[in-house]
Fold this sequence. Notes:
Layout: H1 10-60, H2 70-73, H3 103-113, E1 125-126, E2 132-137, E3 151-155, H4 162-172, E4 182-185, E5 203-207
Helix pairs in contact: 1-4
Amino acid sequence: MKSRQSGYTLVEIAIVLVIIGLLLGGVLKGQELIFNTKIKATYNLVQSMSAAFNSYQDRYGALPGDDTQTLVRFPAANPVTVPGNGDGLLGYGNCTTGVAVSENCMALYELRLAGFITGTYTQAVTAPFGGPAFPAAGNSNMGAVGFGARPILQFNQNTLTYKAANAVDTSFDDGNPTTGDWRCVGLAAGYNMNTPDVTIAGFCGMNL
């Protein structure tokens, strides 16, 4: 007796292809939703840090980190605070180690002691796209784009992709990395969207 060969019909193959397409579309859509959520969270992080800075200044009449009276304000702090020099500016240090006592890193500790943000000592906060973010003066690593000495929230190098940095700028600022409230340095020619998934080698920051 001849054996009858069985196989998939065109209709069955079409159904499988449709299911695969729907699954792939769902995955891609989910990735885009996650990306957009991180963009919004990046902006919200800047806004929450700005609110913390303003609340500290309203309460104590001094810029966190630059405050000269922290030993009086937080006598029980352990480790003890390192008072600032009161010049109205933020001295710069790298807050990624969590033990830096420069004014900008100490600002994080004082905001935590005052109850405005959470976290440990002078440790940088974790940015939505990963990597550290911490307050700084705009003339530290960002001076090349004309921020001046205004306090900013700095996002460290090699943490934001060109696509992410551009998305924050176009969503919440002017889309230009050298002007506005969101600026980046170390970009050869603006946001290189030919390599959107490559992290920028410079820094990005936004006014507080």
